[in-house]
Amino acid sequence: LHRIRARAEQTKRKTTLLIVASKPSTVRFADRIAVLEGGQIGALGTHRELKKTSRSYRELLGIREDGHSS
Fold first, then answer.
1. 70: which residues sit within 8 A by CB, 6+ positions away?
2. Backbone angles phi, psi at 48, to 5 degrees
3. Which residue of 6, 17, 18, 62 has the fewest C-beta atoms within 10 A of its own C-beta?
């Protein structure tokens, strides 16, 4: 995982990098994150934006509606 993240940091300035991940920690520092819902993009944004606006993303993070971890 650390190698992937380091390589992504080196590469992202030069090209578009698509990372498919089930763990949000893998993509937390991406410029943009797409949350798939039913095979379609249900939400798009940064980690910070999605924490505020996407219920599905918060569920992936294990954050309840009241903002606490479950």
1. 62, 63, 64
2. -60, -45
3. 18
Environment class of 57 (CB within 10 Å of its CB; exposed 0-12, middle 13-18, buried 19+): buried
pTM equals 0.68
10-69 pLDDT per residue, tens: 766 667 777 787 777 778 878 889 998 899 999 999 999 999 999 999 988 887 666 566
Q: Could you tell me which of 52, 56, 45, 49 has the C-alpha nearest to residue 67? A: 52
**Residue (of 10, 35, 32, 41) closest to 22 by Cα position:** 35
The two three-digit tokens of residue 44, written as one number: 């798009």
Predicted local distance difference test score (pLDDT) of residue 22: 75
Residue type, 17: L
